[in-house]
Amino acid sequence: MKTADLYRREFLTTSLSGLGGAALTALLAGDGAFADGKPKRVGSAIVSPLAEKPPHFAPKAKHCIFILMAGAPSQLDLFDYKPALQKLNGKPMPASLLEGVRFAFIQKDTATLMGSDYQFRQYGQCGMWFSELLPHIATCADDITMIRTMYTDQFNHHPGQLLLQCGRPVFGLPAMGAWLSYGLGTINQNLPSYVVLTAGRGSSGGATLWSSGFLPSVHAGVLLRNQGPPILNLENPKGIPSRLQRKALDVVRELNQQRYEEIHDPEIASRIAAYELAWRMQSAAPELTDLSGETKQTLAAYGVDRPEPKYRSGRVGTGEQYKSFARSCLLARRMVERGVRFVNLIFASWDHHSNLKRDLGYNTGMVDQPIAALIRDLKQRGLLDETLVVWGGEFGRTPLGENRPGYKAVTGRDHHPYAFSMFMAGGGMRPGYTHGETDEIGWAPVRDGVHINDLQATMLHLFGLDHLRLTYRHQGLDQRLSNVTRDSQVIRELLADGGRAS
Questions:
Q1: Which CATH number covers residue 89?
Q2: Is the pLDDT of residue 301 over 60?
């Protein structure tokens, strides 16, 4: 290995507790460094800009809040009302439907259909169906686009989450937030363009779900905490005055500049900007997470002070999850107000192979009020039209009850990639619209199926980006989010204007 490579690796692995992934915002745009959207020299260093870049055509959305419900919520108990499934409860499925089907745990020979324990009714002028578990989100029906016919190629969690977030079920790919950051840059100076907030016990995919992959590291998601110091080790050490830290940063910058002039590695310029962003974030990030300026009405609407229920799911970890998730939803709105491009809000887990009735009730009780408050709050502030809110998991749950060996009773549902539900709001989506239809038991789409890659192509379209043109050369291919091996399509029926590019 060359000496230059060793120096480079040493620098990358010691750079400010991982903040290099957040580095290149438009820190130098105000100085004219990126006036025409191309890198320019600052001194003798070449800086890769994250300045705001023009889209391919006029966008509808400027921000995205993607709420990933990791573990796969049961669409049959929340959105996809199936009276026939109730009537067939306890009966076997036709063997022909099970040919070639893979399950994670179900024993096909003895599995039977399982209806929902919950009541459904229609909401809003649009008549959208919701179960009794989501009374708050249901009141937003006329602002929601419901997709009942999502499907995926993956039936296990980590591959499914990678496909949903990154376009393919393999490691080392950029997440959707990284692609948007790469394609459009940032519209804020003091916060990362792509931020991640987590709740619950953590998703199966972990940090692979917000990676920059083969894109420059500046586009990776930055994990923020919703209480206390937003990023560990970001604060200035006690006893170190700000002016001394500024001098130290200037010295480090000069040394890095000298190193760049020796080996001309553009990543060093990125790391210089990372330190500058961290310097600015020392003021911006604590202000972001300080909710003291929010009204009592707003805090109550989100449920920031809600107590934990007496029964809590064993699948979400410890701590006050109800309060934590509510804070994350409120912070997502505050980030959008401050120009953050993409917010990933990841909560786990919805993997209800057993104890479905009690555990699903706990999870929906946690997310229902804050998400509804988020949609209403964005709308009230005039932000919903330019903010795309997305809710969903990596796949759904099967209409069959899970008869896993060793369990005395059937109390849950297995993984189901063939049909599941997701909903979206704002950002140019068609409000009050339900897309597609599944068969009478919710097994598969009978019309208007939407593959995960089609959803990604549609989301990029809302941001004014042609998914076929948003590419990055890697390993000899022009890689893209919507998968180079699949003919993905923008689903124009989902869009408020029919998907007309202007």
A1: 3.40.720.10
A2: yes
